[in-house]
């Protein structure tokens, strides 16, 4: 005799909404994401906070991130041969907020950084950083998906990762 299948409760779905930028933002507010800062150098250093960082391949070591073409960093990133990718720790909420804020002095006195390999700005105190060679910029609506190959880095920082969820920076909970 076979056992009867387990009964499951299926959640009631709400009424579907038409796809829109607001719908996508609302859905992704429920998705916890790691927080990174991407930097580059042109006539001046630029950077922005990214939650779209993704590992693409291990061999060669590729990653990707999205950047808005209307952002103040885009003109430099559009031409940069190399970028810095920094994984932030939970102790770096202020740094994440600075790099997320439009018009902020991102490389001012409150930001510790130095020029790293390929002249890329490397931030102090991060959990890990990579300098990457840009291999592609793929059009995606009002953004570009940048694919880059890691050429140098240091994963030796200490601490726990910073997360972004429900429109706020958060820490992991045990």
From TrEMBL:
Q: Which domain of life is it from?
A: Bacteria
Asked if Oxidoreductase is a keyword of the record, the answer is yes
Domain spans labelled Flavin reductase like: 28-171
Q: Is-annotated flag, keyword Hydrolase?
A: no
Quote the SUPFAM superfamilies the UniProt record gives. FMN-binding split barrel
**Matching Pfam families, A to Z?**
Flavin_Reduct
The record's listing under InterPro entries reads: Flavin_Rdtase-like_dom (IPR002563), NADH-dep_flavin_reductase (IPR050268), Split_barrel_FMN-bd (IPR012349)
Keywords attached to this entry: Oxidoreductase
Q: Which PANTHER family match?
A: FLAVIN REDUCTASE (PTHR30466), FMN REDUCTASE (NADH) RUTF (PTHR30466:SF1)
Its name, as the record gives it, is: Flavin reductase family protein
Taxonomic source organism = Streptomyces gulbargensis
Top-level taxonomy: Bacteria, Bacillati, Actinomycetota, Actinomycetes, Kitasatosporales
């Amino acid at each position: 005799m076979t056992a009867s299948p387990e009964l499951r409760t299926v959640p009631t779905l709400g009424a579907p909404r038409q796809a829109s930028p607001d719908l996508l933002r609302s859905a992704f507010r429920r998705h916890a994401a790691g927080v990174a800062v991407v930097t580059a150098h042109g006539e001046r250093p630029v950077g922005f906070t990214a939650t779209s960082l993704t590992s693409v391949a291990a061999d060669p070591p590729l990653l990707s991130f999205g950047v808005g073409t209307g952002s103040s960093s885009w003109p430099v990133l559009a031409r940069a041969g190399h970028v810095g990718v920094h994984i932030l720790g939970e102790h770096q909420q202020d740094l994440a907020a600075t790099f997320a804020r439009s018009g902020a002095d991102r490389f001012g006195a409150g930001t510790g950084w130095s020029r790293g390999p390929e002249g890329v700005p490397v931030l102090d105190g991060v959990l890990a950083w990579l300098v990457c060679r840009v291999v592609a910029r793929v059009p995606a609506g009002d953004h570009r998906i940048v694919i880059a190959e890691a050429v140098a880095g240091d994963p030796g920082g200490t601490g726990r990762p910073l997360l972004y969820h429900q429109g706020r920076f958060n820490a992991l909970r045990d």
